[in-house]
Amino acid sequence: MATFLPQFQSIKSSFAHIVLSVEDVSDLWPTIKKGFEERLPFKRASLNNKTRNPVLVDELPAEFILTTDARLRSRFPQEQSLFWFREPYATIVLVTCEDLDEFKNILKPRLKLIVQNDDREWFIVYVSKAPAHNDQATKMAKKVFAKLEVDFSSKKRERCCKLDIHGPDPNFWDDLEGKIMECIRNTLDRRILFYEEEIRKLSEQRFMPVWNFCNFFILKGNYSGDKPCDCFWDTSESLAFMFEVAHLHEDALREYDELELCYLETGKQRDFGGMEKGDDQATLLDSGKKALAQIVQDDSFREFEFRQYLFSCQAKLLFKLKRPFEVASRGYSFIISFSGALALHESMLPFCMREVWVITACLALIGATASNYEDGLAAPDVEKEFYRVQGELHTLCHTKFMRLGHLVGYGSDIERSPVNRNDMLGNVDKRKVFCQENLSQSVDHHKEFYIFLHSAITLVFPCSASLSMLPWPKPAVWPPLPPDASSEVLAKEKMILQESPRLKHFGIQRKPLPLEPSVLLREANRRRASLSAGNMSDLFDGRPSCPAWQTELLNNTRGCILLLLISCVWDMHAYNCIKMENFLDSSQTSVSDSSGTPSAVQRVSNVSMSRTLSSPGNFDGSIDRPMRLAEIFVAAEHALRNTISDAELWKSLSSVEEFEKKYLDLSKGAANNYHRSWWKRHGVVLDGEIAAVHHKHENYDLAANLYEKVCALYAGEGWENLLAEVLPNLAECQKILSDQAGYLSSCVKLLSLDKGLFLPKERQAFQSEVVRLAHSEMEHPVPLDVSSLITFSSNQGPPLELCDGDPGTLTVALWSGFPDDITLESLSVMLTATNSNDEGAKAIKSSEAIVLMPGRNNITVSLPPQKPGSYVLGALTGQIGQLRFRSHSFSKGGPADTDDFMSFEKPTRPVLKVARPRSLVDLAAAVSSALLMNETQWVGIIVKPINYSLKGAVLHIDTGPGLSIAEKHEIEIEKHEFGANNTDHSDNPPDNHSPVSADVKQLSLEDGKINLPDWTSNITSVLWIPLKAISHGLAEGTPAGTVSQRQSIVDGLRTIALRLDFGVSHNQTFEKTVAVHFTDPFYVTTRVADKCSDGTLLLQVILQSQVKASLTVSDAWLDLQDGFAHTGKGDGRPVSKFFPLIVSSKSRAGILFSICVVDTPAKDGEELDPISVLNIRYTISGDRNLGAHSPVTKELTGPENETDPLTFRSALVLQRPVLDPCFAVGFLPLPSNGLRVGQLVTMKWRVERLKDSGKDVDSDDVDEVLYEVNVNSENWMVAGRKRGYTSLSTKQGSIIVISILCLPLVAGYVRPPQLGLPDVDKANISCNPPGPHLVCVLPPAFSSSYCVPAA
Amino acid sequence: MASTACFMIVSKNDIPIYEAEVGTVPKKEDAAHQHQFILHAALDIVQDTAWNTSAMFLKSIDRFNDLVVSVYVTAGHILSFVMSD
């Protein structure tokens, strides 16, 4: 085999362009070469791809080679089919001729000979040497060219073009390029057809059941002795390469993909490969690393090299296509699958070959893709995916590198955190992801191909779990310890002994996560022992545990000598134990191995076990004796040295420092790439790993920064278990960096984590740190958010409701997450009004120090008066020592809220409601009816609290003018009962209305103030105040028929100004002025009932009761004014005695007095008494709840004195009789047609003398009577005399009629003129009937001046 | 046969809201936190794949040693993880 392989590879490496041959018939090439080569490379070439679709190639490199060139001449025809891609794609025949005869005789036959080979694409370039000015030569050249065209061009195809050396046609070059392209296109099409046909034939045969490489070889032996797979491969790759040369990269890539599939389908190759020196370095991006001839094995290629070779070809094409992201994703997938393939052959390969190969492959891929990738090259989501794959490559490399580190004993230098096993995750189904992505991305890719590829990969590597589990290497034999390694073993022993488990800050003791796949000691010895004596297998997996006393001793002493002693004893003990447990062990090994998670207890004992066995003197290098851990490290190191050929990689494993450096590089690379992708969690988690290394190296600043990122992620997403792992580390860094704020915050966060995550002792340590810092001298007092630790809520139940202006007491429930009691120096609760946005929260401070117990605490704070509105708890602030803390979170711990665990943010419930200002109390007069004037009366004031307690209320009483408090008397208070007045009449009036009932309490007035008793605080009560209204005037009686009572009502009104101070701290005030009506008991009217003929007048006095009480008149007498006298007995008493006369409420009674008129001569210097006075002695029987009642003083004297009469005096004015008319004046009726403006009307009055004038009456004596017409001149015009004398007989009954002509001036109801007799006293004129008050005057008629009647 | 299984509900803000060890193997002290760790890292992958598929049950999206993580994604993006061996 492989005759042509080296040749092919050399051609591949040297041929990167298309060849165009030049047949220089007339030795013209040196002259025109320059012009031709200037056209290279061709721009915008149009070629056909495999599916015959035109593809535009931007730049097509090519080379012109003379047919006489050695490169073309030396080829054998049989090679052509395989290496056809390097054959010329076009033949350009260069000719010149200036003579027709010469053309016909010499040139034409020669040309015919040249072009007769149909395989080649050709065309002729005729070069004219004729100078432009030589017309003859030019003409000849044209003739020759025309002849040439006739002979060689056809209708279908132009094969000739003309180049004028002395003045080339500008179109010539385009024409030339067009012809070259046509040739190339045709050649390419033909060759593609040929290759396809070849491949099809070979493929068909490959799928036949009897097909094998040998048969194929025999059948197709004519392929110049080459072997079939090569033929196939050569053909395919030749095609692929041809595409590549033609810059049809997509097609080339597709060919390579198909080639890979075909290769994988051929099944298992006999020899895997990978055994040669330097094979540990991946060549997946370097196709020329190894000659193809070297990787041929029997009838096929070795898988190890060939698959890498194929991938490198694909990668090269993808880079050319500017798709580095695809290289990365394909590469990652390739590494995974190839790693699986390596695992299958692990027993054959050098020790850890697989790990080393993966590391180098990842590094190569990372380097190549990153250098070929520029930001913005792809769409954002592709870019993110690219970075994710880069991250994956880094972590894969990182994992494998760590595995090597473990093998050589650097395991203790790797932080065992959950973090650094992250890379094991997410590997499963990456193939699927890859395929899905490619399916979605490959717009111009064959989807079927990827599906096919996917299924192929799945078939070969059914599960990538083998990688995710990351087992220890499984060589056929674990490398033995080389001789002369005792010093190295000692060094490793020492290293192991110096290991000390790092104690976490706060004294936290945690077992490491069970993340390692298995125990190396056990694994290494198992591999070795399987080849040695059977009963020694599975030795020393640490199962027999070390006795406690020895462990104790181990922990306390580190002396090697002592360890030696112990190990000697222990060796014997262990040996016996192992023998006994051999059976058990062999059955459990597989379980432990597969799970890969031995308990931490086991691991701890492993370490101690390995230590005890680390006795330098015991070592003899025998294969039968189980190796100790240090020996395993040394043996692995030696074996790795043989495996690893890359000096850089070996350097990274040569020392702990270098190892850590590389480890950090890889971690950082992974983290950075994950951050740039959408796998932020992976990135942050790797940051934690980097932080752990910085932490270990005391780069606390860097460590803290990174830890903060990790903690922020875990805290933000609420993964508390994970946070609990990392947060103590952050706290430690912050403490060392003196970042007090950060440290306190971390401590608080630690405390607020789930209680189960830390031991009580540890939590107490956190608290003591907080308290210590709070009470220490802090340079800068730090505010601290303890929202997660101290939560609060309002107490259950309705919110506290306060009236406007009232202070209150607010109870808040606080949940303390501190493990112990903690003293708060102060505590403030912020109240936020829900209805107003402009107003900030108000802090309500609790002044005294508070000790918070773990769990729920009830805190009471006093609340000053707040503005009306609804308030919610805003935040909690306070001080612990010098630490100002603040909490924003509502408690989740309330018992009623536990069912609401889904919501973290509880809807804010109002904790306080301050009502809008409203009337809290009302004061009103208890009685609306009138009370007795000038007597001490109980004035009831109803004090009515309106849903508000009047506890401690004080009432200020200020009486207005004409009213005074009878201070001798106590003030009474009783419960007010609505409707009691009406209902209690029939039931138990004495009980309910007795002033000494049980409900009545006596109060005293001090400085005009009354303190209301507490029992009245919530009930409506009546306050009875003894008041006396004083009126100095005498009541006036009025003649019957006149109404003047209104005046007396206004006179009887008195006011009491009341002010009530109440509220929790007398902060509320209510003021009201209450009007009370006082009146006399009677309203007196008089009339003369009868006038007897003897001059006796019967005077009727009518008494109208004005109070709601029963009045009993016991006596009445009248003190008459001068001019009147009593008839009869003269004692002033009424005519008949019906006393006692009872006048019930609102009723009237009358008393008759018999009087007569007497003439009383006026005495000198003495004025006549102008008024009469009516005296009434009466008693009153009333209820203070209804109105007027017995005066207070009377009540106090007791019931027996109830009849003590009161005296009521009323003035009466009596007038002498005046009914003595002399004249009667009557208004005569007006005309019936009515009055009209402008129409004269005669007003008539009749004046009749009613009695004789009293003078000496003569029979015909006539008296002159003065009359006068009073008229409003605006309404009436009087035609005639308004005033004058008229004569009237002095005899009784004489009559005259006075007529006055008047003219109404105004329409409407107007007062008519009045006739008066000025000389006669009004008392002597009787106007019965009186004249009309108003007369109706119609509007004026239509003007007659202008309207002539029709008649 | 003893099995390890862990069930966890994660809210749409990636906050674990319910966790239960439902396997027959007694819970180890350190295992719970390991489970959380595995499931937390799987969130990245869930986020990745959940939007690329119409399926609500994402079977075996991740794996750690012999523990397989599957997740049911509700329409509201509440994740129900099941991890079992």
TrEMBL record, chain A:
Q: Where is the TRAPPC10/Trs130 N-terminal domain?
A: 18-328
The entry's localization annotation reads: Golgi apparatus
Please, which domain of life does this record's source organism belong to? Eukaryota
Domain Trafficking protein particle complex subunit residues, every copy: 669-752
GO biological process terms held by the UniProt record:
early endosome to Golgi transport; intra-Golgi vesicle-mediated transport
Q: TRAPPC10/Trs130 C-terminal domain location, by residue?
A: 1235-1315
A GO term from the CC aspect: cytosol
Q: Where does the UniProt entry say this protein principally localizes?
A: Golgi
Q: Which UniProt keywords apply?
A: Golgi apparatus, Transport
Q: Which residues form a coiled coil?
A: none
> Would you tell me the protein name for this molecule?
Trafficking protein particle complex subunit 10
Q: Which organism is it from?
A: Salvia splendens
TrEMBL record, chain B:
Q: Which domain of life is it from?
A: Eukaryota
Name the Pfam families for this protein: Sedlin_N
Give the SUPFAM superfamilies listed for this entry. SNARE-like
Q: Could you mention a single GO BP entry for this protein?
A: endoplasmic reticulum to Golgi vesicle-mediated transport
Q: Which GO terms describe its cellular component?
A: cytoplasm
The identity of this protein, by name, is Trafficking protein particle complex subunit 2
What organism does this protein naturally occur in? Answer: Salvia splendens
